[in-house]
Amino acid sequence: MSFKIAPSPHGHNQRTTSEMMRWVCYALVPGVLLQSYFFGPGVWFQITLAVATAVLAEMACTVARERPAFSALRDNTAIVTAILLAISIPSLAPWWVIVIGTLFAIVVVKHVYGGMGQNLFNPAMAGYVLLLISFPVQMTNWLPASTISEHSLTLWQTLHTILFEYTPAGYSVEQLRAGIDGVTMATPLDTIKTELTRGYTLTEIYQGPEFSYFAGAGWQWINLGFLVGGLLLIQQRIISWHIPLGFLAGLCLPAFIAHIFAPDLMPGPIVHALSGATMLGAFFIATDPVSAATSNRGRVIFALLIGFIVFVIRSWGGYPDAVAFAVLLANMCVPLIDRYTRPVVYGHGD
Amino acid sequence: MNEYKNLTKQGLWENNPALVQLLGLCPLLAVTASVTNAMGLGLATLFVLVGSNITVSLVREFIPSEIRIPVFVMVIATFVTIIQLLMNAYVFQLYQSLGIFIPLIVTNCAIIGRAEAYASKNPWQRAAFDGLAMGVGFALVLIVLGAMREIIGNGTLFDGAELLLGEWAAQLRIELFTVNYPLLLAILPPGAFIGMGFIIALKNKIDAVRSARAEKKTVTRARVTA
Lengths: 350, 226
Prior knowledge:
The structure holds 2 protein chains of 2 kinds. Chain A is mostly helical. Chain A folds into 2 domains: 130 residues, no CATH class; 158 residues, no CATH class. In chain B, 67% of the residues lie in helices and 2% in strands. In chain B, strands 1-2 form a two-stranded antiparallel ribbon. Chain B is flat. Chain B is mostly helical. Chain B has one domain. Chains A and B meet through helix 5 and helix 6 of A and helix 9 of B.
C-alpha cells in the first residue's frame, strides 16, 4: 500500500503530482520554442544536460537515503526543476555550469532538506543563485536576440561552444555578443541599467537595437510565450491565479507609479512585465507548491512580496534582474506568512 | 588523570565549542576562506583561551560574584590585546588579512563561556588544560572548514602559509587542481554556512553510527533454559 501525497495544500484535485508536473512541462513548450528561436538551439542542449543530471542525482540521492531508486523519479518534480534551471541560464553557458547548478539544486536544496515536498527553497532558483554568485561572467553572457545578432550558430557550432567554450572557428561567447559595430550587446534590462547610470534617458535608450515594440527585442515574445503557457496552467487548474496575479501586481503597480513620476528614469509596467524572467517567474517559478505560502491569502501576500522585491532590485539593486533573489527571499518569509494567514476553522473564528 | 582525559574528550568532540555549542560562529564563518587564515585565528583563539582560563582560575577567589563578568571580559581583552600586538609585530600580512576579527576575539562567547563555566570553579592546572582542549577543538573545526572552502573555491591548500609560518612554509602550498573559474560561493559567506552545516551533519552521523554500534554490543543473550 502506498500513500499518495497530493501537492500542498493537500486539497482534493484528482491529479497526481506526476501528472501536474507533466502539465507544467507541456505549458513551458511555447516559451522554450520562442527562446530557442531567439537564442539558438543551445537551450535544448541545456535542457537535455540538466534533465540527465537531475535524473542521475535524484536516483543517487534516493539510493543513498535507502529508498528504491526509481521511487522519486515517478513524480517528475526533478525534471521540472532541471528544465526551469536550464531555461534560466544563458543558452551558450559552458556545460559544467548547468551540471553544477542542477546537482546543487537536487542534492543540497532538495534532498538534504528531506526530498520532495520538504524543501524550504525553490530548488531551481537556489541553483540559479549559486551559479550567478559563483560564475558571474558565464551567467550573464546572454547573446543578443537572433533578430538583431550578427552571428547565428548552427547546431554543431552551438554544441561545440557549450562543450569547449569556443565555436569551431575560435570565437568566444564574448565575441559573439558583439554587434556589427563591434560593441558588445547586453540584455535589455542590463542595457537600461548601465545606460541610465551613464546619464541617458529611457527615450534615448529605447532607440537602441536591443529594443523593439513593447520591450526588449526577442525577450518580449519569450515572455508572452510563457504567459500563454501560464494561462494554460491556470485553465487546467494546475496553478491558481493568486500567485501570478500577485506577482505581476507587486511588480507593475510600483513600476506604474514610479513611471508616472519619472517617465524617463523608471521603465513602465509593460517593460517590466515583458522583460527578463518576469512571466517565467510569475507562472512557473513562484507557483512552486512546496516552497510557496499555503493559503490563498498567504499566496497573494507571498507573490506581492516577490513582485515588489523584483521591482526594487531592478530599479536600485546591483543586478539587472532579480526573480531568483526575490523568490528565495520570499521563501524565507513563508513560515511567517503562513502563521499569520492561517484560515479560520469553520465555527471557531470571531 | 581521568579528569584530563574527560576534558580532552569534551573539548575535541562531545562538547566542541564550534560543532556542539555553536559558539564563536562569527569569526568561524568569516575568516575560514583559507586554511592559513583559519589557522591564524585558531591559534590566536587558543592562546587567548588558555591565558584567560589560567588567569580567571587564579583570581577566582578574589572576584566578587556580582562583577565577575566585567572582570572576565577585561582579562580576555588583555590577552586579546597581547595577541593583537604580537601578530601586528611578527605576522603583519596575516594581521591585515584577519583584520577586525582579531580584536573581535574578545566577544567570542566560547572564551567567556569557558571562563564562567569551568575556569571560575576549578584549579588553574585543570582550567589551563580545559582551555587547551577547547581551543584545539575550535581551531580544528576552523582548519577543516577552511580547508574545505579553500579546496572547493580555489583548488589549493595552505595558500599563503608563509604569512603565518615564515618563508619555509611557502613550499607547503599544494595545488590540487587548477580552475579557470573558481566556485566563488565557497569563498563567500554563504559557503561558510553551507560548509558548516555539512560538518555538523557529518559529526551527528558519526555519533549516530557509534551509538548504534554501542547499543548492539550491550545486547546480551537471553537465557532460555533455566
